[in-house]
């Protein structure tokens, strides 16, 4: 049966790309794949794909090219560098969907390079994805796509094939807007991945049963999508399976802090996470699952001699762990929303995307609307505060920080979050005495 | 020859206490020492001291007691706990000089305990010291003494025997004020000790000759007293001699952050340092010299694969190291001065003490007066700005943070300092567009 579906070139068949490309094969597309790692191409052929030996060969006569390499450097190499680069070989008017997570600045630069190379005809789509390898293979990713209207229209069917119908976000703002949307989502990811290790490491210092601690968190206001997905791997004796390497979230983290520096925006939470990721990398944990960073947190457990904990019961100890996470999630939500506002993104779209994706947390759901209202208006009263009072969250967080200090347990994110709430209180309007916790968003400016 | 000098009891003959007590012996005092570690008492006898087997025995019939134990817990034990405690055995009207570094809250509580035990007659002096073992033995310490006028008068000669004439600070505010003064000084110490490791670890990632880097820093605006004293030990192959253990500065660091939490004051710099100290403790570095924390910073060097540094020349790389330190010292100065203002200390005295003690740095000297002027007035223009523009310091710091990110080198304090300057810029008055760097102090409230 001859397919009326257009042929697709797919560059980059890693954990995500392989699933995405294979899904397109299953949907009846003829997909020509390219990857630098030859065994992957053999696997792809076994799944019904075609294999090319260069990017140029892959895209020859293809009206659509999906690029899912790991970094901006790799995207630049396969698209534009050398005689086997894809772009010169693309037919005129072809669509290029860049699905890699790259800095906004890179994809905007790529658009300029296409124009400079007299290939402004190419319909570039800035379309980073989220959701992990399973959803990639299932065609149910979240996709954040920014591009010209024409490029979006040309590529919409393909974006739909790869995404969940409810999770295809067309982001206003053209090229760069998709990457910015992904980036602000990753503020939550970067902090909440590490918060899982931090909270469980703290639970270990407290002498808690970690499985019980994890179950308690998941049933509490300290829960997050990341905690639910990372905690089983953090508690696996060998941190298995390696579902997402530390180097991957570190790459996204560095995109956030570098883009923030470029626009002069402070990212105290994400920068703290980045420093801990660097420490993990230095220890040689880069290739390991990111949940394995719990090793950085429980290291001193029991070494510092007998310490009298003030929290004696399991219930009291579990409350400290939940209080720690609530404080961290409050501040990661604030950093995400304040950064999104600074970048001019549609905050309602940011919020909807984040609560339905890997960045979701109970705190974000509770405080997000108030935070959005606070950064949209200037100095006006909050919209509809739904979260706990700031004092209540701060008090829970402070109890956790007090106890961690007593146990000499590092809690980088929790300590940072507490200081941020203090800075927020130092700068909040005098009229906001009984503020709800969303007011912390004002510390970012 | 019979001495007309009063007999002294001296409790706690550790690295500092031994030198202080021995100095008093040399000055002609009859000093009765007590320490839980018996060999120390033998050494003290060899130096001409007398030895007691309990605190109570040491203080019997002594009108003066100096207490130089390591912690508030130890002070409480030797002064008040059990049948051999010192306080019940002290003659009426005796002076107790508590020279240990303890929280303000503890020494104020001690004053209340004395009153409750019907020993309000004791002339308590809150007199923490600074300067290290050499100056202790030399009788040239810095001493920050807070007490009633009567207690100060009674003890002045003894404070003078132990201190440099120019470095005896009588701190207004009574019991607790001396400890607060020491504490705000230790904000600088806690950050600048760690900054030495951070800067030299960064220099290692940059591929610099570390001795040359240290020499350059010492001749630059990135210099500090701590850097001068720590860098030789950080560069010693075995981090020798062990002049000050990591556990000691960690103890002081935790006093700062705990007291700050008690009054709701944010300490983003010191809290960051504390988390790194906890990490070092977890690695087993607690008993080692604090300069050995450079190990936490250079760990990943060379592991992350070839990275193209943008700084190619030694001169450019050295400038990055200096830029890093200037940024950190700017923010540690801000945290010190803002905290001192919050505690109601005499800022001129704080500044004079700090620039002449272990907390001194070129940045503090340059920006301290402007910072003091900014926190004293409310919203008014700065007094006499002497430092670089904020933009200049931030730009140097940002280049260092950019390069560290490229090298995947952790720089916890530098990253935090950069974010604080960004937060400061977000909150500074619109009229302060061309602000000098001291304006960063406003971020604390």
Automatic annotation (TrEMBL), chains A, B:
Residues 176-297, 321-429 form the 3-hydroxyisobutyrate dehydrogenase-like NAD-binding domain. InterPro entries: 3-OH-isobutyrate_DH-rel_CS, 6-PGluconate_DH-like_C_sf, 6PGD_dom2, 6PGDH_NADP-bd, HIBADH-like_NADP-bd, NAD(P)-bd_dom_sf. It holds the Pfam family NAD_binding_11. Gene3D superfamilies: N-(1-d-carboxylethyl)-l-norvaline Dehydrogenase, domain 2, NAD(P)-binding Rossmann-like Domain. This is 3-hydroxyisobutyrate dehydrogenase. Residues 7-164 form the 6-phosphogluconate dehydrogenase NADP-binding domain. The lineage of its organism: Eukaryota, Fungi, Dikarya, Ascomycota, Pezizomycotina. PROSITE patterns: 3_HYDROXYISOBUT_DH.
């Amino acid at each position: 049966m001859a397919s009326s579906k257009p042929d697709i070139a797919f560059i980059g068949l890693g954990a995500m790309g392989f699933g995405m490309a294979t899904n397109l094969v299953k949907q009846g597309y003829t997909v020509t794949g390219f990857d630098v790692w030859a065994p992957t191409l053999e696997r792809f052929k076994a799944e019904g794909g075609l294999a090319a030996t260069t990017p140029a060969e892959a895209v020859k006569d293809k009206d659509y090219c999906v690029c899912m390499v790991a970094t901006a450097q790799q995207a630049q190499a396969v698209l534009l560098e050398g005689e086997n680069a894809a772009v010169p070989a693309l037919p005129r008017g072809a669509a290029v969907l860049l699905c890699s997570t790259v800095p906004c600045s890179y994809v905007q630069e790529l658009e300029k390079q296409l124009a400079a190379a007299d290939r402004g005809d190419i319909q570039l789509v800035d379309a980073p994805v989220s959701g992990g390898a399973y959803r990639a293979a299932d065609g149910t990713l979240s996709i954040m796509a920014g591009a010209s209207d024409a490029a979006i229209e040309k590529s919409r069917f393909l974006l739909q094939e790869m995404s969940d119908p409810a999770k295809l976000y067309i982001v206003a703002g053209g090229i760069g807007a998709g990457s910015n949307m992904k980036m602000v989502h990753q503020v939550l990811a970067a902090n909440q991945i590490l918060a899982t290790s931090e909270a469980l490491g703290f639970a270990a210092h407290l002498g808690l049963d970690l499985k019980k601690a994890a179950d308690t968190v998941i049933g509490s206001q300290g829960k997050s999508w990341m905690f639910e997905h990372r905690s089983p791997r953090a508690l696996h004796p060998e941190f298995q399976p390696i579902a997402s390497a530390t180097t991957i979230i570190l790459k996204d983290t560095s995109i956030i802090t570098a883009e923030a520096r470029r626009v002069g925006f402070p990212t105290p939470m994400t920068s703290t996470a980045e420093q801990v990721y660097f420490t993990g990398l230095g220890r040689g944990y880069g290739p390991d699952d990111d949940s394995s960073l719990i090793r950085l947190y429980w290291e001193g457990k029991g070494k510092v001699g007998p310490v009298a904990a003030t929290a004696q019961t399991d219930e009291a100890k579990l409350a400290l762990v939940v209080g720690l996470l609530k404080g961290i999630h409050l501040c990661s939500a604030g950093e995400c929303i304040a950064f999104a506002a600074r970048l001019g993104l549609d905050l309602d779209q940011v919020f909807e995307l984040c609560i339905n994706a890997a960045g979701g947390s109970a705190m974000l759901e509770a405080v997000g609307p108030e935070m959005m209202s606070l950064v949209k208006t200037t100095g006006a009263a909050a919209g509809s505060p739904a979260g706990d009072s700031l004092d209540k969250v701060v008090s829970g967080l402070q109890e956790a920080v007090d106890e961690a200090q007593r146990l000499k347990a590092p809690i980088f994110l929790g300590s940072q979050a507490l200081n941020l709430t203090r800075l927020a209180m130092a700068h909040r309007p005098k009229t906001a005495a009984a503020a709800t916790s969303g007011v912390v968003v004002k510390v970012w400016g």
